[in-house]
Amino acid sequence: MQFVQQAASQIVQQVLANGRNLNQALDESLRSKTGWMPAQRAALQDLSYGTLRFYGQLQAVLDTLLHKPLPDERVRFLLLVALYQLQYGKSAQHAVVDQAVRAAHTLNPRVGGLVNAILRNFLRNQAILLEQAAQRPEGKYSYPQWWIDELQAQYGERSSAILEAGNRHPPMTLRVNQRRISTADYLALLAQQDMFAQVIEPDALQLDKPVPVDRLPGFFAGMVSVQDAGAQYAARLLDVQDGMRVLDACAAPGGKTAHILEQAAVEMVALDRDEKRLQRVTENLQRLELSAHPVVGDAADPDAWWDGKAFQRILADVPCSASGVVRRHPDIKWLRRRADIAGFATQQFGILCALWRVLEQGGKLLYATCSVFQQENEQVITAFLEQQPDARQLPVVLAGSCDEGQLLPNDQHDGFFYALLHKQMTEDR
What we know:
Elements: H1 2-18, H2 22-31, H3 38-53, H4 55-65, H5 73-88, H6 93-107, H7 112-124, H8 126-133, H9 137-141, H10 145-155, H11 159-165, E1 173-176, H12 183-192, E2 197-201, E3 204-207, E4 224-226, H13 233-238, E5 245-249, H14 255-263, E6 267-272, H15 275-288, E7 293-296, E8 311-317, H16 331-335, H17 338-356, E9 359-369, H18 378-387, E10 391-394, E11 406-407, E12 416-423
Parallel strand pairs: 5-6, 5-8, 6-7, 8-9
Antiparallel strand pairs: 1-3, 1-4, 2-3, 9-12, 10-12, 11-12
């Protein structure tokens, strides 16, 4: 376990000190550890994700424990991982401390005693240290201060629940392919494998316990996909009908593309600017035995890829801060900067205006983000409606939504925003 702890600290350092994406750093680390057992690989993922999820709290505790700067910056990340294990893990405390001391010794022989003293001090004064950490908002919520301020300004008293939801483990939700099997019949298949789930949306089943996809009955036969319940609203809100020409802009990795095709027999164009990510769309559709026309291109520049034939429906699932899905990507909290939000909003507005050109009169465009920041959501739509006289916003119905089109993260779904826009006919204006 010492090597797992040390590897996790290296991943955390790459994210926090070097700004690397967590998934990329973790994947690279795992590829180099071909001899590791599944339990070790799972532990590495848990330690990496968990330490970043609670980094604000753990760093506040460590600041209190340290009386002078550490002689080696690598030791700080090792201590953060060990503190996460002691606070949230299931390993024996003495084993965690011993492993951390051994790992520290390999980094710098002079710091083993210091690491031992810091971790044992934490164990002796755990309750007091956690209480002191919670006096600071970053220590209480484990988010950067600007993020906390933004949510408090937008949501007031509800902001605490949003912040707390982002620190919980995400649910594993399935989307049942109704072309292959009914929701009720798939529930029965799960029960036969001693897996249990609850229906939370017409096509959505939330598993009681997450499992590897290869254990899901019928997964490779296309019966089911993994997709958050909040993301499953997109296909239903888009209101597709057989025979329509549909564009899924920014389509990768293809979950929403596939769901639309499961809903209706449409002519689907799957657009993404990243050719490698677009290949994932094709792979997902092949597993489900569905087809689309993949197109490499920038949604903000239709002149480079559009064939001149208008679309009846467009899904604009635009790039965003991903602030609604931080429980799945805890590194986002620490990699994002306040200025990034304005940059995303400018990009989103540009994409929306560009795609409006390729939507036929009478058609509908669904604007979607996985963000909870209003600057990327309501404010973009308001600015667009002020500029486009032929655009009208249609109502959307979202279960549990407390704001128009805004799903806030909770135990059943991540955070998403949806705005359905209708392009009015000339005679209707």
